Amino acid sequence: MDYRDMPRESLNSNIPKGRGMIKWAPFATMPEQFENVRKMQEDQVKISRPELSDDRLEEIDRTLKNALALKRQVRIEYYHDGYKFPVDLKVISVDVWSMMVVGQRTDDEEMVFISFIDILDIVML
What we know:
26% of the residues lie in helices and 30% in strands. By secondary structure, it is α+β, with helices and mostly antiparallel strands. A 5-stranded antiparallel sheet has the order 4-3-2-1-5. The longest helix is centred in the middle third of the chain and has 17 residues, at 54-70. The radius of gyration is 30 Å and the shape is rod-shaped. InterPro entries: YolD (IPR014962). This is YolD-like protein.
């Protein structure tokens, strides 16, 4: 007869319980390991901040001033947290004091603040 079919009262209560969940303890670290592997894969894709020459910085500055004066839209490629991002925007102001470009996105009209040191490329549209 199978012990699962027997009533609980007739079973021997002196049977040892065993290790229970202790035997599964080494596998409790697996989510952290998977998280670390995912983070390492993301870090491999990231790039370091490119160094721009003085000529390139002057060209970016000139293009920003022209876009502001002519009230034209620009496409700015900027660096953030290891990745390059493009954004199309209308330049509202160039704040030299805080070294920021203030603009308004063309697609959703959201205000965007981009630091000068993060700008990699700029093209007037």
